[in-house]
Structure formats: C-alpha cells, structure tokens
Amino acid sequence: MRLIPFALAGLVTLTGCQFSDNDTPEVTVVTPAPEIKSNLEITDISTGPLDTLEPNDTVKTYYTVDVTGFNNVDVEVHFYLMHSDELDVQNDQEAAIEDIQQIAVIELTGLAQGASEHEIELTLPNSLEGGNYHILAQIDPHDLHVEDIEEDNHPSVDHDPHLEGNFPHADIVVREQAGHDYKLLGAEFGQAALILDTPNSDNGASEHHTDLVGYFEADYEGTNLGLSHIKAEVMIAGNWVSTHFWDATAGKYTDTLAHEFTAELHNEHIGFDIALEAELLKSLHDNYNADVDNTLEMRFTLIDAAQDAETNTDNNQILTSIPLYFFEQEDTTDEPASRLARQDFTEQAVAPAAVGLANINFQSEFDKSYGDKSKFSVGVDLQGQLFIVPTGDPGGRITGEGTVEAYFFRAKNTLFSISYNGSAYISGQNTGYESEMIIFNNVVFEDEKFTAKYEKSWEKKWEEDKTLAQATFTVGPIPIKVEAGVTGNLGFELTVGYNAELYAEGDLFHVDFGAFGRGGVNLLVASAGVQAILTLIDNTFAMESNAGFALLTNDSSNPHIYYGIELKNDLDVISGKFGLYAETYGVKWCKKWGIPYPCGKKTSRYDLWLYQTKSVFDKSWTIYSKEGEINL
Fold first, then answer.
1. Measuring CA to CA, how many Å separate 544 from each of 295, 302, 353, 574, 628?
2. What residues contact residue 178 under an 8 Å CB cut-off, 6+ apart?
3. CA 546 – CA 352 distance, rounded (Å)
4. How far apart are CA 446 and CA 283, in angstroms?
5. Are 186 and 267 in contact (CB under 8 A)?
6. Residues of 160-180 as b/e, b for ≥16 C-beta within 10 angstroms?
C-alpha cells in the first residue's frame, strides 16, 4: 500500500477498504478556502414595503455593512438606481448600462469589525421615466483599502455568490411619467392680508399700483415644451371674475401671465404681481360685510398655449384665499391715522378731507414681500406721511421710512432700514429733524437737530458685502455646504428744511443688492460650486413733501395752509437665477448574464436651480400723491 503524504495545499481522502496492486485508488482532493484577513462588503439592501413612488420622492433605505480585518475604518459608499429592464440574463456579452443614475455618495466613519446596520434617505431624481428599478450600492469604489476580496464591493460576475443574480439590491416601482403634462403645484402670497381702499376714495396712487404679490410653483413632464399662460380669477357673489397681471417686459397689465417652461427645470418659480381694477374693486366692496371675517377667494388656471392634448388637466388649477379688508377712511383724526387691520404685509393710503379745523393726515405705506423664504425672499416696507395741525400751535410733520428685509434659506436678515422725521410748529417747539440708518442690524448713521429754522442735506453711500446664511443641499448625489449673502451699495440723498414752509425732497433711500454664493465639498470623488446671476433688490424710494403755512402772512383775511405730498417708487426684486452644480468622478456600469457591475470611469454633472425667474415685479409708480389747501 502506498502512502500519500498530506500537503499544505490540500487534503487527500482514500476511499475503499482493500484494493490489489492492479487497482487504482479513488482519490478526492479537498482544497480548504483561503483565510479572509480583510474585506469590506455590503451584504443586504432593503426598503421595506413601498407603494408606487413618484419622481423626487424620498425612500428610506436600509443596508448591512460587513467589515473583516479592519477596525475604526472610514469608507465611502455610493448608491445607484438602475432600471431593471436593463438586465438580460441570457446575454453573455458585455454591454454598457444606459439607464443608471448615481443618487448618493456618503462616507461611513469609524466602522468596527463585524456586521453593522445603517440607513439612508435616498431622493429619486426628477427625470425618472418610471417602471421597476433596482437600488444598488458600491463600497470603497476607489479601492482605497487593500482587501483580500475586491469583487464583492459591488455586484460582480467574478464573485460566485452573485452569479445567480443574488447580488444585494432593493426593488422599487416608480410611476410612469406623463407624455405631456403642465402642473400648477402651489401659489404663495407675499402678504398676510389684502387691504384695499374703498372705491369712492382717491388713494392718490398711479395706475401702476400693486394689490397682490406672490409666486407660483409649477412643473412639466414630457418632451413637448411650449408657451403656457396663467389666468387669475376672484370670486364675487358666487361668480368667477378675471383680473390682471403686471407684465414687466411689456410695461403694462395683461389678461394672463405668460410663462415658458424650461427643460429639466422642476419646481419652477413664477412670480406674479396682480392689480384689481376699479370695476372689480367696486364689486368686491358691494359684497363686503365689515361685521364678519372676509376672504378673497382666488382661482389660478394654467393653460397650454399650443392647445396640445395634455395627459392630465386636473393639476392645472389652484384654489386659494387671502384675508380681505377694506380701509374705511375717517374724515378727521386727533392723532396720525393708525394702521387699521394692519397685518404683516399691507398697503393702504389715507387722505381724508378737511372738516372744520381738525388735524389732517395724509399717509401711505407699501408693505409686501416677494420670493420663497426657503430659498430667497425680499420684503419691502415703505411709509410716508404728511400730518398737519391747523389749530392751537399750527404746524406739521413729514415722515418717511423704508425697510428692506431678506430671507436666505429661512434665515431672516434686515438688510437696510432708514427713517426720517421732520416737524415744524409756529411756536418753535418740536421744530427740527431726526434721521437714522441701520445696515445689517447695526446703526451706521444718525443725525438730529431741533431749532426754529433749519435746512439739511444728506448724501451718504455705503458699499457692503455680507455673508448672511449657510445651508446644505444635495445636488445629484453630492451634499454641498453653501453660504450666501448680498453685495451691492446703498445710500440716500435728501434735503429737508423749514422756514415758513416745511419740506423734504429727494431719494429717501436707494438700495442695489445682488446675491452671491460660495460652496464646495470635501469629497475626493466630486467637485461643486455655485452659479448665480441674481438681482436681489434694486429699489429707489423718493419722497417730495411740503406744507406752507400762509397764516403767517399779512393776508389774515384768508388764512390757509397749502400742502403737497408725493411718494414714488422704482422697484425690481429678485430677478435672475441662483443655483448649484456638482461633478462626480464615478464609474461606468456594464451588464452580462443579468448582473450589473462597474466597468470603467465617467464624470457626471448635476445642476440644482434654487431660484430662476424673470422679474415680474419691475415697475415705477407713484404710491401716493396729494396736494391742496386747507382754509383756516
């Protein structure tokens, strides 16, 4: 009998109890599996039960990481979304996978040896065509760690457990996209209430006024992009009545708001500026009941200008409402008119006629915001007043105030605030002026003087560059930390005085701010940045006011006060675009025998537009204008 020695490389087993010299022994060689000293592997991916998903939905995904031979290790994991129709189990030829998208890049830190459970929220791309998809993962995609087995870092045809299609993945179902479908998703107002003057009052405003400011969110699915129109209607006595939008390009009001959708730009921002004409205003007032809470019901409808057959028209319309008040003017006041029914954002004008020798107040304010607070929003608050006291110690007061506030990623910032208050009384008491300017919450200028006669001119300018907020966004698969702020200039040029006539004239303020952004990532697999051309606000608020006291002249037979006030505004807020981009240095995927696997390298670019809009709120108009005489 021959002895077969044991070898390090294998084990020999003899079968049969006896055999002759002519017999050949039956030998089985068993090779033990090599010892795995180091390995990184994702062993399981799942999502739990899910209904049919929509593009842009978020999917919570669970996965298991198994670590061998490493301790306190940091490793990257990349997630991909692949259409399951890409896989053909019969094809033994390598072919590129066309419908696969990288949807997340993360870094796991401090992993210990052994299995550990993790979860991640994956956002589905807007561009998904619909159908059945696989969620795949790749650990250590750039082979930064030396492993005994590299093939199991991802699905692979070179890894035996994956050959029967048993590679780790999760299955989801995404709704099929429509072939041609415009969507009106929402409407937001830039004011808390709509406050209107009664139809029989002369509010002193020019034809280019503003009643409602806000924006729409809209989207499009399909490949037949074209021009669309949005129609606005208000409910009056059970009937829908059309109103008008301001068209900044045409410089006039139009029946509908035209909008051209942008390919691959989802959640589009469409700003609107609505004015209610005199006839509609009268109808609203006729049906207004001051004893109850009133709301203005509104209906917005998006219309395909090409009249193509849309897949679904049920999502083309929005019904919404806003609290409604009418400012009932009073004939006389003992104090400056209060801001009746004042909400956060209102517009009103008070110009009562003189009755007897009562104090007279001429006042207007414009207070609205524009934009999306989660991205960028600007609030403008303008006020002007001429207050006349014809009895006792005759005199008057002229005031002007402007404030610009902005939201960056929901962070509120006071960009700029200025106030002027000038007064004059025949006795000389309380005659003088005071002014204050605040920039980014800091008082940068204040001036005050009280005297029997005065004249003062200011011309101040500042240039500012201020970072105001930080936020993190995911662009494609890459998280980007972004900081944003404003850069621009501001100032005012105003002359005030009193010498038998109280006056103020000039630009109470001018601000010209653009938004800037900076951003980046610390990942080796990606680069990122900011793309911005955005006018945040360009606004000039001019005031001309005067009040002459003719009772000081020798013509005592007809003592009177003459007055005049005009408030003008030239305003443009948030026009342009602000977005982020990321480029990932990822892998190309191929398929064979129904198995997807990395087969090369490629660079992918992703864009995320946070804000992109034309300027619909770009106009010059007279907020208030009044002049006349008051006989004493």
1. 35, 42, 20, 27, 14
2. 221, 222, 311, 312
3. 17
4. 47
5. no
6. eebeeeebbbbebebeebbeb
DSSP 460-471: EEEEEEEEEEEE
Tokens of 196: 């209107």
Smallest CA-to-CA distance from 557 within 632, 469, 453 is with 632
Rounded to whole angstroms, the Cα distance separating 534 from 377 reads 12
**Is 248 within 8 Å of 275 (Cβ atoms)?**
no
CATH of domain 179-328: 2.60.40.10
Token look-up 């500042």 returns 462
Model confidence pLDDT, tens digit, residues 563-608: 889 999 998 998 899 999 998 887 899 999 889 999 998 888 898 8
Would the pTM count as exceeding 0.70? yes
Q: Taking the domains of the chain in order of start, what are their residue ranges?
A: 39-174, 179-328
The fold adopted by the segment(s) 39-174 is Immunoglobulin-like (2.60.40)
Which band of pLDDT confidence, cut at 50, 70 and 90, is reported for residue 24? Answer: low
The residue among 359, 353, 357 whose CA lies nearest residue 334 is 359
For residue 38, what pLDDT band results from cuts at 50, 70 and 90?
A: very high
CA distance 499 to 454: 7
**451 burial class (0-12, 13-18, 19+ CB within 10 angstroms)?**
exposed
619 vs 50: CA distance, rounded Å: 50
Residue 526 amino acid letter: A
- Candidates 307, 328, 304, 306; CA nearest to 316 is 304
Please enumerate in sequence order all residues whose Cβ is within 8 A of that of 46, keeping only pairs 6 or more positions apart, or say none.
61, 62, 63, 170
Rg (the chain; Cα; Å): 36
DSSP-derived pairing of the beta strands 595-613 and 618-631: unpaired
485, 408 contact by CB (below 8 A): yes
Quote the CA–CA distance of 589 and 180 in Å, as a whole number: 31
Number of continuous H segments (helices) and E segments (strands) in the chain:
1, 35
Pairwise pLDDT comparison (119 vs 352), residue with the higher score: 119
Residue 9 identity (one-letter amino acid): A
Helix (H, G, I), strand (E, B) or coil at 225: coil
What is the C-alpha to C-alpha distance for residues 602 and 444, in angstroms, rounded to an integer?
53
**Tokens 């004011």 belong to which residue?**
191
